[in-house]
Amino acid sequence: MATARRAKPVDAGSRQRLIEATDWLAVQPRTAHLAVGYFGASTGAAAARVKQALVYYYFPTMDDLFVEVLRTGAEVSLNNMRASLSDDDPIRTLWLMNSDLRLTGLNTEFMALANHRKAIRAELKTYAERVRDIETAAVTVALRARGVDLERYPAMAISMLIAQTARSLCNESAVGVTLGHDQLRELVERQISLLIDTVPTAPSAAPQP
Fold first, then answer.
1. In angstroms, rounded to a whole number, what is the distance separating the alpha carbons of residues 3 and 61?
2. pLDDT for the residue 63
3. Which of 28, 167, 7 shows the shortest CA–CA distance to 71?
4. Is residue 30 a contact partner of residue 113, using CB atoms and an 8 Å limit?
5. Using only C-alpha atoms, what is the Rg of the chain?
6. Nearest to residue 142, comparing CAs of 179, 101, 94, 175?
7. Hey, CA dihedral for 80, 81, 83, 89, is it positive or negative?
């Protein structure tokens, strides 16, 4: 499990290179270093071009390294998400963001890793809940602006339906499964268009005496 020790301040550049190298290796095609457990100190050290001993100097366990990679990537992702979902069409943006395999690949690897590592599971849970809060808030604003009944169409349910469908397609595409994807994408995009094109009904004018 990840330890509570703070990373040592010496040569922060080497520490950062280890984090970036681990991040990069995790999403390389046909490797899946994190998920299948092949990633070790020597792998990270070689990719970062530092001595293997420095891995455990900065990160007492591999879980410490994985947690730091997840935290670093999470903050960047959350900031990008807040900026992207503040545009005029957050519902479609939500669909496009979660349909981008480049953005979901690292999360997929950490989901697999979380099945076996408690520290990663706890960190991923925190990140996932923050993501859901941001997505739900954006969808709430968009639906309310269009006069959609939020009791009948809960914003959290709508945001989850959009995001989870997109991520599922990404996960299948990553292993070469694409059967039915085009039809499902067309259906979702058609429903999104219907949803975002909804215009609040203007109140009827009061009858003239």
1. 7
2. 84
3. 7
4. no
5. 21
6. 94
7. positive
Residue with tokens 């953005």: 103
Provide the CB-side half-sphere exposure for 32 (13 A, CA).
Answer: 11
Distance, CA of 126 to CA of 186 (rounded, Å): 32
Are the C-beta atoms of residues 67 and 120 closer than 8 Å to each other? Answer: yes
Between CA 5 and CA 14, with CA 8 as vertex, the angle to 5 degrees is 125
Nearest 5°: CA angle at 89, between 86 and 94? 80
| Tokens 């301040």, located at residue | 9
Residue type, 198: T
Residue position matching structure tokens 């981008």:
100
The pLDDT of residue 67: 87
Give the pair of three-digit tokens for residue 167.
């991520």
Enter the tokens of residue 142: 């968009």
For residue range 116-144, list pLDDT tens digits in order.
Answer: 888 889 998 999 999 999 999 999 999 99
b/e for 180-197, b at 16 or more Cβ within 10 A? eeeeeeeebeeebeebbe
pTM above 0.85, yes or no: no
Contact (Cβ atoms closer than 8 angstroms) between residue 135 and residue 163: yes
| pLDDT mean across residues, the chain | 79
pLDDT-above-70 percentage for the chain: 72
Cα separation, 42 vs 48, whole angstroms: 10
